[in-house]
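User: For my dataset I need records formatted as: sequence, then structure tokens, nothing else. Please produce one.
Assistant:
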Amino acid sequence: MNPPEPERFRFPLVGIRTLLITLLLPGVILLLVIDSWNDYRTLAAITNEAYDSALLEPARVLESSIEFTPDGKLAVATPVYAQVILESKAGLRKYFRIEEVDPPLPEGARSVPAAGATVAGMPEMPRPPAWPSARGEPVFFNSVYRNDPVRVVAVLRDLYYRGQHRQVLVLVAESIGRRLQAEDAARRQELLRDARMLALVAILVWWGVAWSLRPLARLRNEIRARRPDDLTPLDASRVPSEVIPLVEAVNYHVARHRRVLDEQSQFLADASHQLRTPLAIMLTQAQYALREPDPQRAQEGLRAIVDQLGRTRRLTEQLLSLAHASQADPTPRQLLDLNEVARNVVVQYLPLSHEKQQDLGWASADPVQGGPGTPVVPVLGSEVELHEALSNLVHNAIHYAPAGAHITVSVVRGDGRAEVSVADNGPGIDAASRNRAFARFDRLEPGRPSGSSGSGLGLSIARAYARRNDGDIELRDGEPNAQGGAGLAAVLWLPLADSSAAA
């Protein structure tokens, strides 16, 4: 016996609208956040670049204003002009310092020397973290000067006078208050724009999901508005293509349900018709027995009632078997030896065949290699249903074949399937009428012995059970009879199974 499968974790069921919105909105929000952050960084970089360019301008003016005095000292040639450029505006405070680097550092030096002699400007200006290039490439950095957060630019210049190499460092600092205000304004605008965009995207996603699910809501309302007995197929042309397989599956289930209801209605109608006749006959026979003063004739009437009760009982059992065979629920299957099932059916019906003076024979299938207990003809199926199917075939052969007839039950292994043949040399059924033999309550009287009667359900029940076990029943020519014709052979076939399959 196989161990039970571990219970799998199942996610809680949610609506499609909730699921889609849950999957879409977080991704859209994340993309908007990433895009906003990139835009903000780009805008901040552009703002800083603009302010840095503006900060570099006075540094270049100071750099170009340095010259030598007649006595070989360094001085600012245009101090008034430099002072105007460095004037503080509202929210902007500028600081500058020009110092001489002594001795001059070689090109490519990266170490920052100590502060040199002040040529002009404020003392104790912040030192740059890296030494600027002598080729005029500036160095920008953030620092604090006199408790004021500033942005500083450092420019290095080489000067030559009468064969002397001199070097000056120009530092210009500017308070960053206006920068921070500009960045805050840009950030607020970005957040406001993103909030509007997020609200618009959320509305569009919500509306798009709701609009896409309208066909499902319409389909739901259509199903709810139907009458309980309305089993017409659903219209698959008004739903999205992704839902069409589901609608087709529902239509297939509805068609099966409608077919089952039709079969049940037909079965009830046929059963009521078939039971009404024997009940009326027994009522008439009982009334006759009650009115008959002769005890012997009354006994004959009672015996007729008993016979009719036996036939009615057989009919009732056949109807119950037919109802069970017509059920759509699958039955448990196991590994069976079809040879053994057929032999048990033959043993069961030997007394009935002897009573009718018939020769009921048995031909076993050839054994296969294997140990004790290995099935001769292995099949997967329900033992009860296969036994009932073969019982109906054998009972039909005994019932309709005349006295002295030969009935042979044989089992053979074919190419991928097993066959059980119930052949007799009775009157048989002509080939044109054999398909009708499987119809319910259809009795083919021509060619049958006088006095034969039946419910017309045997072959229908046998075929229903055979098909429930993935097989079928075929009617073929049987053994030659005394009239020179062929009898009838009812062959039940099933797929062969692997003899090693687990029960």
